[in-house]
Amino acid sequence: MHKSKIIKLLCLFVVVGLLAGCVVGCGGGSNEKATPEQGSKTESSTAPVKHDVVTMVMTSAADTLNPYNISGNYGDVIFDQIFDRLVYVTASGKVLPRLADSWEMSSDYKVATFHLNKNVKWHDGEPFTADDVVFTAQLITNKDVVSNRRSYFSSIEGTDENGVAAEPSKIGVVAVDPYTLEIHFKTPTDINAFLQLDSTRIYILPKHLLKDADPAHLDADPYFQKPVGTGCCIFDKQVPGERYELTANKDYFLGTPNFNKMVIRVMDAASIVPGLMSGEVDLTSAQGEVPISDWPLLKDAKGIVPASVKSYGYQYMTINCSKEYFKDARVRRAFSMAINRKNIIDQLLFGEGVIAVGPMPPHHPYFNQAIAGDPYDPEGAKALLQEAGWDFNRELEFFVPTGNKVRENSATLIQQDLAAVGVKTKLQVMDFTTEINYLRQSKGDLGLLGGAGSIDPDDVRILLAPGTNMNFSHYDDPSLFELATEARNKPTFEERKPLYDELQKKLVEEMPYVWLYHANVLMAHRDIFENIPVEDFPNLNYAAYSWTFKE
Amino acid sequence: MSELQKKRNSYYTDVFKRFKRHKLAMFGIAMLTIIILAVLLLPMIFKLDPYTTMVAPALSRPSVKFILGTDATGRDNFARLLYGGRVSLLVGLASTFISIIIGVPLGLIAAYYRGIAEIVIMRIVDIFMSFPSMVLIMVLVSIMGPSIWSVTVVIGVLEWTQFARQIYGTALSIREKEYIEAARAVGASDFRIITRYILPNSIAPILIAATFRTAAAMLQESTLSFLGMGVQPPQASWGNILYNAQSIAILSTRPWMWVPAGILLILTVLSVNFVGDGLRDALDPKMKV
Question: Which family does it belong to (chain B) (predicted)?
Answer without folding.
Answer: Belongs to the binding-protein-dependent transport system permease family.
